[in-house]
UniProtKB/TrEMBL annotation, chain A:
It comes from the Bacteria. This is Outer membrane protein beta-barrel domain-containing protein.
Automatic annotation (TrEMBL), chain B:
GO terms for molecular function: hydrolase activity. This is Alpha/beta hydrolase. Keywords: Hydrolase. InterPro entries: AB_hydrolase_1, AB_hydrolase_fold, Peptidase_S33. The keyword Secreted does not apply. The keyword Hydrolase applies.
Length: 227, 344
């Protein structure tokens, strides 16, 4: 476990150090006129719970390709707001354009936390997605598909759990991967000057392509502000 | 610095793939997150019934009146009923068993349950209960009392309706529903989530941390256990067993048998009250004051199917509290049950 922990620290340090340079969300690649280098975004929707999120992204150019890099933090609703969260760091890159049709890819590292009466989980994961869409200056729509993998998870059980459910439960890091979900769906939006309004609706399927999570839909309303 | 973005992206990608399996600990390994079952741990008390190895034990004089404790679920276990063990010191033979696929009993794949067809409830649960009674009964004259809670009360009612002459006494504690529509009504009331509440979030958010295939029992059982461990609606606060607790803490929610049972129920719409009008002996019907999903009007409706009954409201406890709270059990419930059995 020691080597794993060192690797985890390396990854966290790596991402924290570069956090102002990586990630993304639903972006209108066609709205170039008001596309500044900075983007703030807020989201509200369902993402394995009723969630709200905030993000910051920074645009760079990788040779001919624009790349948004940055971070997003979302938390689910509940009585204890800070006990669960998801933090993403990564990049979204425009790969190819034919007229107004555009292919983009997103790669993000995830750290997330879950806590209830029985256990605290802390997970490192990854999220890869591709989007094909039609992008105009004032509106856009596209289809996205991706895979969210829970690569390694730390379990820490409560005394309550040990006293009432299972006293020999094993705490610590669990790998290989503890879970994974595919998602696919539609996204679209409107752009008004420096602001993008977006909607995303996606279906979630577990990695066996058969089982579904309890909340099998990702639905998100987002607002981007570019400056 | 022209290549700086490329360096950053390379670092991200390298980081994402740098998790390697240096020392693996598997979520689906028996004993890691959920306890081992009787087929995985020979030290656990077990019996073989109808081709399944069941976690089971009995206390008290072998030839005295048999009290068979039937747990809730489907998929629960008998641990929370262990206060009933004290009836053994009052001269009764008290039997506990985890149903097939539940608790620490042997698991079966989902398609095994589904393959039992239209008569599945009968084949899986009634035949098993019959096998349990057969296993522990020492003589035909030995009286048999069924004591079921929640789903166990539904099962006990169904069995008594099917074999009214084989049961000498019936104690039912909060059967959720007896006709299928009532079962669904009760489930929806007892497990409703507030949209913005912590309980909903606790149930759904974990699906991005752990996913399990249809028969990855350990993963599914663990997740089911996390969801079912708290339910403020029904007023349960966690079992208090005192000296009745065994020296190990090992509960397991049987997610596969639970899911399969509900699917079978949807397919076959079982009526657990079928034939209960043939059961003429007195029934002790218990419900609790703290279960918000079980108001007086629901208790009146559920108890109406029994011809001859004594209704008892357990004040100050929830759905399982009449059995799993040692103080209530010792002062109120155990004397009530003994008085009921003596009245038969």
């Amino acid at each position: 476990m020691k080597r794993l922990t060192i690797k985890s620290i390396f990854i966290i340090a790596n991402f924290v150090f570069f956090q102002n340079r990586i990630a993304a969300q639903v972006i209108n690649w066609g709205n170039q006129n008001y596309q500044g280098r900075h983007l703030l975004n807020a989201t509200l929707g369902t993402d394995y719970g009723i969630t709200a999120g905030l993000g910051y992204h920074y645009r760079i150019s990788l040779r001919k390709f624009p790349v948004w890099i940055g971070s997003e933090l979302s938390i689910p609703a509940g009585n204890e707001l800070a006990d669960d969260y998801k933090f993403k760091l990564g990049a979204q890159i425009r790969i190819a354009t034919i007229h107004h049709f555009l292919l983009s890819a997103r790669i993000q590292a995830i750290s997330r936390r879950y806590h209830n009466q029985s256990v605290r989980l802390f997970n490192f994961g990854s999220d890869f997605a591709g989007t094909i869409g039609y992008y105009q200056k004032r509106w856009f729509m596209g289809v996205e598909t991706g895979f969210d993998k829970a690569i390694v998870t730390n379990f820490k059980h409560s005394e309550w759990y040990r006293k009432n459910i299972y006293n020999e439960v094993q705490d610590g890091w669990y790998e290989p991967a503890t879970g994974g979900n595919f998602y696919y769906g539609l996204q679209g939006g409107l752009s008004i000057k420096k602001v993008d309004f977006s909607i995303k609706v996606e279906k979630v399927l577990q990695q066996d392509f058969k089982s579904k999570p309890l909340l099998p839909l990702i639905g998100q309303f987002g607002v981007n502000f570019k400056f | 610095m022209k290549n700086t973005p490329i360096i950053y992206l390379t670092l991200i990608i390298v980081s994402l793939f740098s998790f390697s399996c240096t020392e693996n600990r598997y979520v689906d390994e028996p004993g890691n997150l959920v306890p081992k079952t009787v087929d995985q741990d020979v030290a656990l008390p077990s019996i073989s019934v109808n081709g399944a190895l069941l976690h089971s034990e009995a206390f008290g004089p072998r030839d005295s009146t048999l009290i068979v404790c039937i747990h809730g679920g489907p998929g629960g276990d008998y641990r929370y009923m262990l206060n009933c063990k004290s009836l053994a010191t009052k001269g009764f033979r008290v039997v506990f068993y985890d149903q097939r696929g539940s608790g620490l009993s042997q698991r079966f794949p989902k398609n095994w349950y589904k393959s039992q067809g239209s008569n599945a409830i009968n084949k899986i649960f009634y035949d098993e209960l019959k096998g349990i009674i057969y296993h522990y009964r020492t003589a035909a004259s030995q009286k048999v009392i069924l004591l079921g809670q929640s789903w166990g009360a539904m099962l006990a009612t169904g069995y008594s309706g099917k074999y009214p002459h084989d049961v000498d006494g019936l104690i039912v504690a909060e059967p959720g529903g007896l006709e299928w529509q009532d079962v669904m009504d009760y489930i929806s009331r007892s497990r409703s989530f507030k949209l913005w509440g912590e309980a909903l979030n606790d149930a759904t958010y974990i699906d991005q941390f752990m996913t399990g295939k249809e028969n990855q029992h350990e993963i599914l059982d663990y997740k089911a256990g996390l969801i079912s461990s708290t339910n403020t609606i029904v007023g349960d606060v966690g079992a208090k067993l005192g000296s009745n607790a065994p020296n190990y803490v090992a509960s397991r929610s049987g997610a596969v048998v639970n899911a399969a049972s509900y699917e079978l129920g949807q397919d076959t719409k079982p009526d657990f009250s079928a034939g209960i009008n043939q059961f003429t002996k007195k029934v002790l019907f218990i419900y609790s004051s703290k279960n918000k999903a079980y108001p007086d009007i629901w208790a009146a409706k559920m108890s109406s199917v029994y011809n001859n009954k004594e209704i008892f409201k357990a004040e100050g406890v929830g759905h399982s509290g009449m059995l799993d709270q040692i103080d209530f059990w010792t002062t109120i419930m155990e004397p009530k049950i003994i008085a009921y059995i003596k009245s038969l």
